[in-house]
Each structure stands twice: as structure tokens, then as C-alpha cells.
Design the sequence.
């Protein structure tokens, strides 16, 4: 048997680590800014680019795709080479992957504050960036599969399967959810409308959590935890069952983000049932991770890497029990739209993703720089800052979420809402927002401590760019008795196809019926397309990220119909591209806002929310008052929407501007009656037109 | 309205049943296979992350090969 010499590429891992740490700091700092904005609206700085609605998606994208994304690549590139005993298939592709991904992040960091967004959560980036993501992902995919094909280890360890499932599923999710028709280079309309768009988006959104924040990290857990504990995983058999059942079940659970909405009941029930089933594989994975440390718990006291990993796996267990519980309709009725969900995702993000990343970095960096960690004391300090940070973050948010939800639902003995003014339920939880930012601040300080420690570690060591290694060449497959699963592990393409089938079943069953059957989305005859001015106003609403704090979905509860008006019907959203149901109510629901207050109220409110609502934490929008509405794209928007099936009459785009002006004049006139002087070409006019239209169709 | 929506799709009830059946069969065969699988194979697989340095790193050439 010939022994082959080769080297592992550490340089690419080093670059991904650096990017991970830098973007981690950026993403978390933006998160802290957003958290402070919620109790000090002053920190919106009264400029468009830093207002909460635009900053929030910047935070989520930076943390998910830049911090976690680069951590995934670092971990995958490190572990894959060693598990398969080969260098990555192509250095060139590795570097295209690296620089391509960083360029996408920079593009996101520029476009999101500019308000260039599709507004679909975790898929906010506009279509040219979506295409770039696809290309970089394909490059990663070729490099990944190529590496598997040139491997020297016959079997693929379970971590590789998790990476493979990530590769495939992220590709499928991204492609399906990003379908849109461009208006121009910076603007597109979703190929799906209303209920369909919501279903596709949350099929995507949920599985972005599953296949970007979970499966790759489980792969990393299965590699780095045994490494750090110096013992094999507790049960490899369990890991096999864990893998197949997790990837099959996860894909079904998306609709639990849409309980009590206008989504058909059967889809909601499906989402709930599979979410509950998800507890089994998730906890199987958690137990497998924790029991890997059986007989080695004394090490956890000493080894900071294991400390981080134990908390990470524990947080994974907590978040994956809480998620299914929140999918039960009765619990969801309380938790949804509140800060409870924010607490839930941050236990996952800060605990599971953050801590596993930190553990991994503390493990990799000393080895790649051939030295010892600069300071164990600093690493332990980081551990405690981070742990306290998570607690100080999560507890106030749970408190805030439950408090606010109970206040929304509380009635007086006479049957009226006890807190009819939404703002009362917000000011009540402002102290919790302050406490939360303390938690986030602690966590961020911990990351700074880690950064210093890692830099010092690197400085005292010497980096090994190409780690020499040797291994026997891969033998031809031996004939004779073989297990089907071991055959599968030798045939990555077959495994990839099977994994694709597993994840497709759930997706297809959820999505196909809604697409095929028109009657699945009941139409309401009085619902008509938006007027050109309303359409422009809606696009401003999207640009400003209003959906980050305001839902447009009145659930069928007495507490909601009494507060907002009639509950939302599926047929009301057939022209909504994209849907704007939202997932959080930092402010009140807006679906029935149309016609409730005079135009002048909206004008004054957008100028400075405290004008009309004392104590409001909403940012000011002075630029809407001052800036002129860009109507250069109105025609193109109308014709794009018609191509997508919105029934604007043929040739309407030529009349659209005249209609737009006419409607704008009526709003200017109504403002003038209330002694507000403005002109019809301002953005605020379009915004008012849209807000006044919202939810009024069924009243016609 | 929602029940009507559900009924209006022809043969909708078969969708969840078929998928559950597919998964059920797959899952049961997976469990059966996992229960009777060769112990040596499982041992080899679970040790992959631990042997990668030892078997392939030149600096540790003296260590045991697999």
C-alpha cells in the first residue's frame, strides 16, 4: 500500500477565522445599537441609514451569514480535510469561496442601510446579491464534493453528512425562496404573493435556522467535541439516527411561524405536528453530545474549550425543546409577536452558535499557530462574561414577552381591553429592554476579550500554513459483505441524492398544494390591486423596514379583533408581493390601520412619533417629510407586477402617474385642512396613502 | 373557510399519509439496521475524528496506524 504525502491548507481556515471574529464584533455591535435604540430612540440619530428598521436586518444578516457563516466555513475547511485525509479539492475554489462570501457580506452591509431590501426575513438581500450567493455556494459545493471524491479515507464520518445536508438544503431553500421578478437592479417583486409568499418564506426562514444554524453546527459538534474531550462520540449509532430523522423532520416545521394567521389550517397543523416530533432527534443529538463527556466531566472544570461546548450543547437542548413547545397553538398564542421569541432565538444564537464557535476557535487557533493559548484566565473570563450575558439577555426578554402578551389579552370585568393603548404595554417593558442591552453588552465585551486573547496567542506562536500529512491512498472498494450504510458513505453522490429526497418530501407536500390549487387561497371580490401611489408607499414601508416592528396580521382572538378590528383573511393578501405579515410587534399591528386616524395624524406621527403618542419608542422619519418621492420606476413597477399576474389593465402604466398625482392631491388637500402645508411630491404622501389603504378592502 | 380549503384539494388526505409512510418505513429500517450493525464498524467510524491526526500527521509518525 503506497503512502501518499500531502498537506492540509490551514491558511484558508485562518482567513475564515479572522473574518468570523471581525464580522462577529460588527454584527453584535449593531445588535447592541439596535437594542439601545429600543429605549433611547435618540440613537436612531434621526437619519435614515441608522434607523432601527434598517439596522435590525443588518444585525441579523451580519450575525447569521457573516459571523456564523464564516465560522461554518472555518470549521468545515478545517475538519473536512482531516476527516477525509486530503487537502481541499482546489485552493483556487477555496479562495473564490472566501473572497466571494466576504464581498457578499460587504454588499449586504451597504445595501441594507440604504433600504435596498426584499424585506423577507433572513432573505432581505436583493436579487443581484442573491445570484452572487448562488454562485459562491456552487463554488463551495464543487470544492466540497471534489474533496469528498479525492479523499483518502474510505468512510465519511457523520460530521461530513451534516455538512452535505447543509450544502444541499441551503441551495434548495435559497433558490426557491428568492424567486422574484426584477424591476431594476435594486428592486424586485416576489414571485409569490400573500399566503403563498408567507408559506415559502417561513419554509425558508425556519429551515435557514435548521440548515444554516443547526446542521452545520451539529457537524462541528460531532467533530470538535470528541476532539476536545479526546474520546469518541457517545453513540455513533445514535448519530446516524439523529442525522436522518433530523433532516427529514426539520423541513416540515416551517408553518409553525404562521399559527393563527390566514394560512390554511391543514398547513398549520402539519407544522405543529412535525415541530413536536422534532424534539426527539434534537434531544438525541444533545444527549449524544453531552454523554460524550461521560467519565470526563472533570476535564470540563479544567478545559475552557469544553466549558464553552457544554454550555453550547445545553443551549441547543433548551432552544430545541422550547421551539416545539412554542409551536403548540396555545403557547404560540401567548409567545408569538412578543420578545419571548427574541429570547428564544438568542438562546440559540448566543448559546449554541456563539459558544460552539468560541470553543472551536479556542481549540483551533493554538494548534494552527503551534503554541498554547495565551491566557486561560482571559478565556475563563470570556466564558463567564458570555454566560452571564446570555442570562441577562434572555431572562428580561422572557419577562418582557410574557408581560406584554398578558397585557394585550387582559380584559376589564366589563369586557373591555384593560390596556387599549398599545403604548402602555410597551412602556411597561422598557426596563427589560435596558436589562437586555446590559446582557448583550456583557456578551460583546467577552468577544473583545477573546479577540485579544487569540491575537496574543497567534503573536506568540508561528503559523503553519501548510500542515504536512501522509496517508495511504484510498483502496478500491473491497467486494464481499458490506452494510448498505457503509456503501452509502462511500458513495457521496448517492448519499447526496438520498438526502435531497429526504428534505424535498416535506417541502413539496407543504408547498405544492398551495401552488397548484387556486381555490386554496380564497379570493375576495372587493380586494383590488394597490393604486400607484399606494404601491410606492408600500415600497417605502418595505425600504424603512417597518415590518421589523409592525405585523399586518390580526389573529382571530377577541383580544385582537377588539384592539385592531376584523381578523385578517387569506384573500386580502393576494396582491401583496412580498407579504408583510411580520413576526414581531414592537409596535401595534397595522393591518386595519387604514381609515382609523386622519392623514394629519400620520404626518405628525412620522415627523416625530411622540407628537401623537407620548413615550413612543418609534424612530422619527423626518426624511419622509422632506424627500421627494422617486416616481421614475412607477411605470416599470406596474408592468412588472402585471407580468406576475396582478390584474392592472393593459397600458395602465401610461396612466399610472396621472392617477398617482390625483390621489396625492387629495391627501395634500386633506392635510391642508388640518393646517399642514406640504406638496404632493413628498414621500410622506405615498406612505400615508398606503397606510390609509391597509385592511380597508373588505369594508367596501 | 379553512376546512373548505382543505376539502377543495382533491385527494389531499393522501399527501400526509404517503409521506408519513415513506418516513416510517425508512425510519424503522434505519433502526433495525442500527441495532444489528457490526460493532467493529461503528467503533471504526466513531474514532475517525480522533485518529485523523495520529494516522496522517508526519510529526506523529510513530503512532499507531489504522
Sequence:
Amino acid at each position: 500500500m503506497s503512502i501518499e504525502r500531502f498537506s492540509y491548507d490551514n491558511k484558508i481556515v485562518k482567513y475564515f477565522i479572522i473574518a468570523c471574529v471581525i464580522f462577529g464584533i460588527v454584527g453584535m455591535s449593531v445588535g447592541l445599537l439596535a437594542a439601545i435604540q429600543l429605549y433611547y430612540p435618540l440613537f436612531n440619530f434621526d437619519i435614515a441609514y441608522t434607523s432601527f428598521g434598517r439596522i435590525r436586518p443588518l444585525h441579523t444578516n451580519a450575525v447569521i451569514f457573516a459571523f456564523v457563516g464564516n465560522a461554518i466555513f472555518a470549521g468545515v475547511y478545517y475538519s473536512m480535510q482531516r476527516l477525509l485525509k486530503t487537502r481541499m479539492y482546489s485552493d483556487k475554489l477555496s479562495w473564490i469561496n472566501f473572497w466571494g462570501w466576504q464581498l457578499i457580506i460587504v454588499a449586504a452591509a451597504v445595501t441594507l442601510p440604504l433600504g435596498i431590501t426584499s424585506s423577507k426575513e433572513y432573505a432581505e438581500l436583493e436579487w443581484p446579491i442573491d445570484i452572487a450567493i448562488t454562485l459562491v455556494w456552487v463554488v463551495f459545493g464543487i470544492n466540497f464534493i471534489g474533496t469528498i471524491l479525492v479523499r483518502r479515507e474510505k468512510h465519511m464520518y457523520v460530521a461530513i453528512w451534516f455538512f452535505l445536508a447543509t450544502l444541499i438544503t441551503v441551495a434548495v431553500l435559497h433558490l426557491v425562496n428568492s424567486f422574484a421578478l426584477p424591476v431594476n437592479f435594486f428592486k424586485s417583486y416576489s414571485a409569490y404573493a400573500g399566503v403563498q409568499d408567507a408559506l415559502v418564506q417561513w419554509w425558508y426562514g425556519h429551515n435557514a435556522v435548521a440548515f444554516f444554524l443547526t446542521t452545520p453546527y451539529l457537524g462541528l459538534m460531532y467533530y470538535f467535541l470528541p476532539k476536545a474531550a479526546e474520546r469518541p462520540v457517545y453513540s455513533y449509532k445514535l448519530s446516524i439516527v439523529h442525522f436522518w430523522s433530523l433532516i427529514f423532520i426539520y423541513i416540515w416545521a416551517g408553518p409553525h411561524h404562521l399559527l393563527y394567521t390566514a394560512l390554511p389550517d391543514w398547513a398549520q397543523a402539519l407544522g405543529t405536528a412535525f415541530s413536536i416530533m422534532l424534539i426527539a432527534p434534537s434531544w438525541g443529538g444533545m444527549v449524544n453530545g453531552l454523554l460524550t463527556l461521560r467519565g470526563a466531566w472533570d476535564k470540563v472544570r479544567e478545559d475552557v474549550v469544553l466549558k464553552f461546548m457544554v454550555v453550547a450543547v445545553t443551549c441547543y437542548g433548551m432552544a430545541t425543546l422550547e421551539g416545539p413547545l412554542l409551536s403548540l397553538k396555545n403557547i404560540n398564542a401567548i409567545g408569538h409577536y412578543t420578545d419571548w421569541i427574541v429570547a428564544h432565538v438568542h438562546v440559540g444564537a448566543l448559546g449554541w452558535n456563539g459558544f460552539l464557535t468560541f470553543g472551536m476557535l479556542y481549540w483551533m487557533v493554538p494548534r494552527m499557530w503551534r503554541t498554547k493559548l495565551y491566557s486561560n484566565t482571559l478565556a475563563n473570563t470570556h466564558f463567564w462574561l458570555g454566560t452571564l450575558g446570555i442570562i441577562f439577555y434572555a431572562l428580561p426578554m422572557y419577562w418582557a414577552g410574557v408581560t406584554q402578551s398578558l397585557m394585550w389579552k387582559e380584559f376589564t370585568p366589563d369586557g373591555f381591553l384593560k390596556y387599549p393603548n398599545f403604548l402602555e404595554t410597551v412602556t411597561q417593558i422598557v426596563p427589560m429592554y435596558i436589562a437586555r442591552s446590559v446582557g448583550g453588552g456583557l456578551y460583546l465585551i467577552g468577544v473583545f476579550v477573546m479577540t485579544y486573547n487569540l491575537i496574543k496567542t497567534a503573536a506568540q506562536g508561528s503559523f503553519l500554513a501548510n500542515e504536512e500529512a501522509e496517508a495511504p491512498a484510498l483502496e478500491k472498494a473491497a467486494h464481499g459483505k458490506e452494510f448498505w450504510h457503509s456503501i452509502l458513505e462511500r458513495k457521496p453522490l448517492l448519499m447526496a441524492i438520498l438526502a435531497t429526497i429526504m428534505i424535498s418530501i416535506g417541502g413539496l407536500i407543504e408547498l405544492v398544494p398551495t401552488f397548484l390549487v387556486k381555490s386554496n387561497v380564497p379570493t375576495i371580490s372587493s380586494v383590488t390591486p394597490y393604486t400607484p401611489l399606494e404601491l410606492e408607499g408600500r415600497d417605502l414601508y418595505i425600504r424603512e423596514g417597518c415590518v421589523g416592528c409592525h405585523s399586518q396580521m390580526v389573529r382571530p382572538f377577541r383580544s385582537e379583533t377588539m384592539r385592531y378590528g376584523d381578523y385578517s383573511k387569506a384573500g386580502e393578501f393576494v396582491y401583496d408581493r412580498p407579504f408583510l405579515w411580520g413576526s414581531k410587534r414592537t409596535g401595534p399591528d397595522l393591518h386595519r390601520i387604514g381609515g382609523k386616524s386622519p392623514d394629519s395624524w400620520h404626518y405628525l406621527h412620522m415627523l416625530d412619533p411622540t407628537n401623537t403618542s407620548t413615550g413612543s419608542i418609534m424612530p422619527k422619519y423626518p426624511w419622509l417629510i422632506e424627500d421627494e418621492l422617486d416616481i421614475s420606476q412607477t411605470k416599470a413597477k406596474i408592468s412588472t407586477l402585471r407580468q406576475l399576474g396582478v390584474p392592472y389593465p393593459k397600458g395602465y402604466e401610461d396612466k399610472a402617474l396621472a392617477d398617482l398625482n390625483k390621489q396625492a392631491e387629495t391627501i395634500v388637500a386633506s392635510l391642508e385642512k388640518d393646517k399642514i402645508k406640504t406638496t404632493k411630491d413628498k414621500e410622506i404622501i405615498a406612505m400615508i396613502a398606503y397606510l390609509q389603504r391597509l385592511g380597508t378592502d373588505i369594508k367596501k | 373557510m379553512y376546512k373548505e380549503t382543505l376539502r377543495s384539494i382533491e385527494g389531499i388526505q393522501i399527501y400526509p399519509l404517503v409521506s408519513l409512510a415513506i418516513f416510517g418505513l425508512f425510519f424503522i429500517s434505519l433502526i433495525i439496521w442500527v441495532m444489528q450493525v457490526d460493532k467493529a464498524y461503528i467503533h471504526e467510524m466513531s474514532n475517525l475524528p480522533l485518529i485523523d491526526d495520529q494516522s496522517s500527521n508526519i510529526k506523529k509518525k510513530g503512532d499507531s496506524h489504522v
Observations:
- Residues 190 and 663 of chain A are 26 Å apart (CA to CA).
- The mean pLDDT of chain A is 93.
